[in-house]
Write a structure and sequence with these properties.
This protein is α/β, with parallel strands linked by helices and 262 residues long. The protein has nine helices and eight strands. 42% of the residues lie in helices and 15% in strands. An eight-stranded parallel sheet has the order 1-2-3-4-5-6-7-8, sandwiched between helices. The chain binds zinc ion.
Length: 262
Amino acid sequence: MSIINYIDTHCHLDGEEFSPDLDAVVQRAREAGCTRVFVPAIDLKSCLSVMDICRRYPDFCHPMLGLHPEEVRADWREVLSTLNSQLSTFNSILAIGEVGLDFYWSREFEQEQLEAFEEQVRWSVEMRLPLMIHCRKAQNEMVAILKRYADDLPGGVFHCFTGNEQEARQLLEFPRFVLGIGGVLTFKKSHLPEVLPACVPLDRLVLETDAPYMAPVPMRGQRNEPAFVRHVITRLAEAYGVTEEEICHHTNSNVSRVFGVK
Ligand SMILES: [Zn+2]
């Protein structure tokens, strides 16, 4: 039996991809050593599905509520006002997320994305909830917004980090934030196995799947699930030259520091 214990800090377990066999997915996760998963909302509809699944597995799934940058439209103010009332209705919300900026596919709502993100950053400060941040092709813009609140931010995760050393260093300047590392680390062309040990200390990393996306090698192309984090742990241990237990020990204490959850 394995003594590995880890937390998947970013997993869309409420997605319909999991509805046919959710119990089995949770069972496999637990058997692999996954003790908790943090489930982010992306829009109003998913706030409800996230809360549902967290009620169904109360000691295992933990909710994060927010408006994802790719879901920001002209009506973002109304959406955020509804979301804000949900944040105060439900207790046990772990973080604001996932929120951020994404200019990869489209800049159609660029201004709206910037304003919606900043509003949710303010919530994080006011409610003392960490941020689960999604950022693609917008790191400078994101950093500029965060810097305005730098002293007051409670912390958070830069989820699905895939950048270079310079980008990692820029993010680590926010002292209460950590980088979320998932399946991309295991991809053949990934430079993360060199970048991370070169500039990211083990006390600044957390593990994630981003399931159902981003399945690690050798599961690449399949539906990702929390049990597959084992492959990420193995690759991280190789990259840092430490044991898998050490990877789990560090990432677990990072989670408990950032989210207040053990
Ligand atoms: Zn996500």
